[in-house]
Amino acid sequence: MVRIIDRRFDSKNKSAVNRQRFMRRFKQQIRKAVSEAIQGRSIRDLENGEQVSIPARDLSEPSLHHGKGGIWEQVFSGNDQFSSGDLINRPLGGGAGGSGKGKASNEGEHEDDFVFQLSREEFLELFFEDLELPRLVRTQLAKVTDYKTQRAGFTSDGVPANINIIRSMRGALGRRLALGSPYAGRLRELQQQLDDALARDGEDSAEVQALRDEIGVLRAKIDRIPFIDSFDLRYNNRIKVPRPTTQAVMFCLMDVSGSMDEERKSTAKRFFMLLYLFLTRSYEHIEVVFIRHHTVAKEVDEDEFFHSRESGGTVVSSALVLMRDILRERYANGQWNIYGAQASDGDNWDNDSPVCGQLLGNEILPWCQYFAYIEITAGEPQNLWREYAKIGGEHDNFAMQRIESPADIYPVFRELFKKTIT
Amino acid sequence: MKRAPVRKPEPLPSGSEWSTESIDRYNAEIARVAAHYRLDTYPVQVEIITAEQMMDAYASVGMPVNYHHWSFGKHFLATEKGYRRGQMGLAYEIVINSNPCIAYLMEENTLPMQGLVIAHAAYGHNSFFKGNYLFRTWTNADAIIDYLVFARNYIGQCEERYGEEAVELLLDSCHALMSLGVDRYKRPPKLSLAKEKLRQQEREEYLQGQVNDLWRTLPAHEVRTGTREEARFPPEPEENLLYFIEKNAPLLEPWQREVVRIVRKIAQYFFPQRQTQVMNEGWATFWHYTLLNHLYDEGLLADSFMLEFLQSHTNVVYQPPYNSRWYNGINPYALGFAMWQDIRRMCEQPDDEDRRWFPEIAGSDWLETFDFAMRNFKDESFIAQYLSPKVMREFRMFAVLDDDREDKLKVSAIHNDEGFRRVRDILSDQYNLGAREPNVQVWNVDLRGDRSLTLRHTPYRRRPLSDSAEEVMRHVARLWGFTVRLETVDESGKAELTHEIRNEKRRTLVLS
Fold it and tell me: Which residue stretches belong to region Disordered (chain A) (predicted)?
């Protein structure tokens, strides 16, 4: 009578569609919540989801029910002190006094936020929504430099190295069978007659002799069919297909002179990490080159980049020169998408700034997909900023922004990588 | 009730791990005892599911299939969050009023819990679904799953054809009116998938034709003479707002009418459950308690099983007092269980009070009395009929009158001889759907004028509508397509306009 069905291995995410619908419908609110959450959390947390809360009022499902007021007469349990006719003061705020009209008040009363968990994917999707790597699409369409070969069936001509033996032999066998079959049929017939004649007349009759001759001719014909012919040959066909470049290199340039304190460094770090995370969504393989500089530039590893302390003056061009050299040396073969991110407090040795502008404009930007400069300062723009501003007008793959506090990073980030219409 | 075992009983598996075989054995024994108590049930289909699937089931109002809507996603997220953080346990079981009766068991449950759930859902609720007059009248257990499949496919097709957004907005509006989408008194026709499919096309064309006819009778520009009282449309107030909209809303497309109909049908399906909570839960609780105790008396259940079972059972039937922070109204499980237990007691061991209050029950055959009570009542009438002074005393019930014109609350009756009847009336009234939900009906459509729709709210004991009424009226306006008004009738019978949503644009697509 009973049927027991184990449904545990049935599809789990029956509600996935409903969940998506929910997200779509409340995208505005969720997006707002996400951008608020970003400001508060450490960038390293980007691997996790996010808890999002939306005002419950926004997603209420209205229905008709009774509001407060009128006459309510209700039964409660656990009487410990009342007799009929007792008068009780109205409890304040409902609930606290216990005998309050718990049921009379309805959902409209206390509106907690509706809180739920976004998965990492959903979180990043929102985080990166309508951000797109600038000029990426254009590059992919215009600059296909890398090919890979792949199999595409067989052809009838090619180089000997590509001969496919099985296919060729199969073809040869088929041809031999086809060409030989008229002779083979006749041969079987004659053999039969020969056997009959032998049994009837013995070895020496003329008929046997004639049959033997004819059989010999046919055998010779069959033998003359070539074992393999040139048109039996089949070659493996390989074609070249364009492969989009899926690797990128990201240069992180940072000023570590005395004026860059820990706080500024950490702001810069967040910026770099956001860029990195963003690149991981678009490229399979990413290399990161860390260049720090004060008066001289040096390529360092990540730990040293962020944590070692230096002091002294600032010559920004040193870092740009180093970047240019590394770029030429290692990444100039056209297979790399090159991104640059520079963070500084804007201080530079006055005479150096025009040099920087030239270096950047003539020798670095032409190679880059994108170069972003952020100036972490609350003060007036310095000469480097003015110099860079000149280049900004000339190159559309260059962007610059000023950041004052960690809370500014996210908006700036969006601004930098705003979807560019190509 | 010790019974001498006829055969050497072989105890049922104990321990906390369950297996398909052990569930099967439990079910067989429980079914045997249920038959002994003459429980009439649909065939049982037990389905084992995971916690995640349980949350899925929660989100689609417990049904195994349902159409897609964001609000289900919202419920899913809320459930998931509560469960993940351990703030909320999931129900041990969900049971679906269908034939065969589907009972979901969660894999996390221990063996004793599975036994409890089988007895509770697969035999308790199941027999109630099959027997109670409300379920027999309003729902068709044979067809519900098929109908839901039909609904899901139909709405899916609409989404493809008219866009998800249009369908979603329409469903939002229908959901807002769901509680006004039931016939409370009329018997609905039976649902059947085959018939439904066959007639749906026909209905579409017919309905659309009818609606057009309705409006074609508009005279072009007739000058109205005098203040002649015009005939109202509909002539009698209509309580089923969704039904009225489905049949009469001027601007709806045929597919939109069909969607309105689907929501209305599903609302109707859940209608009996809302009216039989105390009875139904009490009944199921009574039976799991009785069936498992019977098995224990036969020596089939281990003591460890009983201890775990009783612990869950007592949690379920606990009634916190009014001043506890856990108090959330009268617990339907507690009240229902106490009442059914009490009815059995009155049948088997009546005292003088019972003979005075319930002369027809006291000393009767308890199984017959049970069967009659289960079949023919809903919460409201069940309490009015069977709530005994003893239960009222045990719950220490008291009634409080809250009149917003008075400064203080008044204790109007308590659990004493003078108060029993009053307490019982008030409690019964609390389960009266007419008292719980506002009475709003379709009053008039201005056929010859601006086609505006007027609804009337007749307050119950001066209770006003909540703030969300405005929002709900917007949804009515969206469906109706023209101006809608809500009037409230005061005690003297005078109607006063309380909400008005003007919608004068004609022939604009309503759902945009």
Answer: 87-108
